[in-house]
Amino acid sequence: MIALSMLAVCIPIATYLVRPQVIVPETATERVVAGPDFPLSTRPLVKSPLGSPAEFPPRITNVQIVDLDRDELQDVLVCDALQNQVLCYRQSPRGDWTEQVIADNLLAPAHATIVDLDADGDLDILVSVLGNIFPDDRHVGRVVWLEQTGDEFIPHVLLDDVRRVADVQAGDLDGDDDLDLVVAVFGYARGQILWLENKGDGQFLDHEIHYAPGAIHVPLADYDGDGDLDIATVFSQNEEEVWGFENLGGGQFRSRLLHFTVNHDIGSAGLVQTDLDNDGDADLLWPLGDNLEYQYTHSQPYHGCIWLENQGEWQFVARRIANFGGCYAAADGDLDADGDRDVVLVSLFNDWHEPGQASIVWLENDGQQNFQTWRIDEEPTHLVTVACGDLNDDGRDDIVAGALHVTRSDKDLGRIGMWLSAGGIAP
Amino acid sequence: MSRSIVILCAVIACELLVAIGLVGWWVASDSEASAPEPPRPNLTFLDSVTVQEIRNRQEDVTANGADGADDWRALAEIYVLYGFFAEADICCQRAAELDPEAFWTYLWWGTALSRIGDTSASTEKFRAGIPYAEDALADVCRYCIGLNLLREENSQEAEEAFRTAEGYAPADYELAKLLVRSDRSQEAVPILDGLIASHPQTQKYHQMRSRAAQRLGDLEAANDFQNRADRATQVLPSDELTGFLEQQIGNHGLDVWIQQGKDLYASGSLDAAASRLRQVLEVEWRPEAADLLVQAELQLGHPEAALPILNEAVRRSGTTPQRLVALGDVHHRLGHESQAKDSWQWATELRLDRAAHERLAALFEQTGDEREAARHEGLAQLAAGIFAERAGQLDSAVDMLQQAVTIAPELAHAWYHLGECYRLLDQSEPADRAYRQCLTLDPYHGRAKRGLDRMLASQ
């Protein structure tokens, strides 16, 4: 009787216990996030947009901080490949910004270089004209000199009938006391590095230094410390090589492969000259994260930034200073006014669907070139260009960055963003 | 047996019946519910046509439940193409569970993991696919493994992987590139020569061969292969996997509609093409569809319909010479000759553009301005000549460039390109004359100077 009673009680309990667990159908998948989740920067930086908001996907290719009108207030120079314009956001008085079209009809301007090319005491602009923002191997590139004459900028085509031009820099390369030019003809499948010998009266004779596609930037500096200007460049397009061209004098250059990786997918995105360790020589920053060959991209574990430390005698040691998905540009500045060089990086292709993924970060230098990465912001996304400079004259560098949308996105279309230090005057 | 025992036995029997029933129902519903649902990523940034195609594939998976390996793989494919790599990973895993011998599952699985950046897992999947692949596709897997190893900067194992795919051109190229970059150019030369023999118009094979020659100190050969690279007509994608994905995406979503519009336009079915392209633009702004629609409307004699599309294209996607030429055509058809001229002239300010110069030449001829007409005709011939030269059609290029310098002898660039064509045709005398004429007109034309120097050095 007792056993039967217990059986009568146990059957429902056992039935309850063996019930199957409720299966919840999977409706969404956790995304794989390649980029680390950086802590939010503790530095007070106040974000504000610069210029008109974007009605359509913007294509800002270059931003720079420069006092173009020499009124002791920094301005922002912008290349806009959607409007085919070079723009200046003039700051006058402090904190008030007015847009001025410096030049138009420049088909996909990639970069602007500020230099007094004709030595008349004002600042001119050299524009690297791609001719097409999208892959194109035709001879559609140009170098255009915007000569400043009072309030006007007069365009002069210095070079055409070449493939897409990504960068132009100016310096006296042959020791004759005028400014020559170095041109990165990025092209697409084919390209080259040229130097243009200044013959006076706005005339330049072109010489080929190197034949290879994908040259992005051509920073000039005395990399070997022998008193003349040398050239550095990075070739992308699956080559992923950093080259130096040693100035031998008399317009002769010796090619030197400074660093390369067999990782064809590393995504070279630029080359920035800086003395990061403040030891008096010229180092290089190498942002990595270009994925433009894919319509739908994903950040990769090797995206980020490498510091190529100059150790003399054309020896450069590669040191990774950040992992950052889709990294597309780097700029150096002293954001915390502690006397050493910090670095700002922006991302074109981070994993925007994942909350907390940064579009802009800064790398705080502890003075010994150990870097802590801080997230500055998550928007605007799709940033491809960044510059540092003291816009509000408080002794700390501020940041400007521009966005370029060539892939589909559901994100807000920010165009140009400014992040101003709000920490008061630096000691 | 006491009455209470009978009642207790009856209760137990009822309980047992209920328990058996419940367990049976649970088992049935469990097997139904445990059929995994496909992952459903956020599709909000895709156009509605593509979203519908993805949803259809999700439904196929749901409808066919546990048995549809092909459905899971098809869903994985479309997830890879639109960047949902983690979701593709899950789908491939399910497809492989259901059909562990399906090669394409492993290829897509490896591709998905590769794009996430998980190269070692990707390599594992490509490797798993090899036993189920036909020979050529097995080489594709080996090549993809090599690419993954390169991304891990493991050049030694990458080299081994490429060697196992010997005879597959992309793998041979990567092997040659590794050899050149590791000071083994001598070994790379026969590989590259073999590639050039079988693919004489492929630019990057010539370019790497030039580099190998340079490393070996053979500067003449380096220059020769550089020349060939500069004029080769076939440009390959950065790697085969990228090219494959690019090709595949054209077969899906709104891209299919665009391709239908292009096909209809090419076959002369202009009304149908315009209709299809309008449907594309109703779904999503696509500049290539807008540009083609403008051409279709122009050919249909509807310039007034083309104008708003063109204006929208300029606003959204920027001014290009092609759009300015079309804008000039629209104004011309509408009888707005002054605006047409302005648009075409604007196009020529942006770059040398054959179509714009041809139209301006015709316009100035009509208005009796023969000098301007000749100048634009010369520039049109120059643009056409450069195009032919770059396409390796040197004889045609010479004809066009001769016309250009006859009509407009002041065009230094035309003389330069004429010199280049003659040099490449081994006609040194006319090449010499053309280069020198270029340098007379523009003493700082460095490319003409280099061409002349190169020709004189080779004589």
Helix content of chain A: under 10%
Kindly state the number of beta strands of chain A: 28
Distance between the termini of chain A: 92 Å
Mean pLDDT of chain A: 91
Which H/E pattern describes the elements of chain B? HHHHHHHHHHHHHHHHHHHHHHHHH
Explain this structure to me?
- The complex is a heterodimer of chains A (427) and B (459).
- Chain A has 427 residues and is mainly beta.
- In chain A, 4% of the residues lie in helices and 45% in strands.
- Chain A is built from one helix and 28 strands.
- Chain A has one helix at residues 2-17, and strands at 45-49, 60-66, 75-80, 85-91, 97-103, 109-115, 124-129, 141-149, 152-162, 165-171, 180-185, 192-200, 203-211, 220-221, 230-235, 241-249, 252-260, 272-274, 283-288, 304-310, 316-323, 327-333, 342-347, 360-365, 371-377, 383-389, 398-403, 416-421.
- A four-stranded antiparallel β-sheet of chain A has the order 1-28-27-26, with no helix packed on it.
- Chain B is mainly α.
- Chain B folds into four domains: 48-231, Tetratricopeptide repeat domain (Serine Threonine Protein Phosphatase 5, Tetratricopeptide repeat, Alpha Horseshoe); 250-318, Serine Threonine Protein Phosphatase 5, Tetratricopeptide repeat (Alpha Horseshoe), CATH 1.25.40.10; 326-395, Serine Threonine Protein Phosphatase 5, Tetratricopeptide repeat (Alpha Horseshoe); 411-459, no CATH class.
- The longest helix of chain B has 31 residues, at 3-33.
- The mean pLDDT of chain B is 93.
- The chains are: A mainly beta (427), B mainly alpha (459).
- Chains A and B meet through helix 1, strand 12 and strand 13 of A and helix 1, helix 4, helix 7, helix 11 and helix 12 of B.
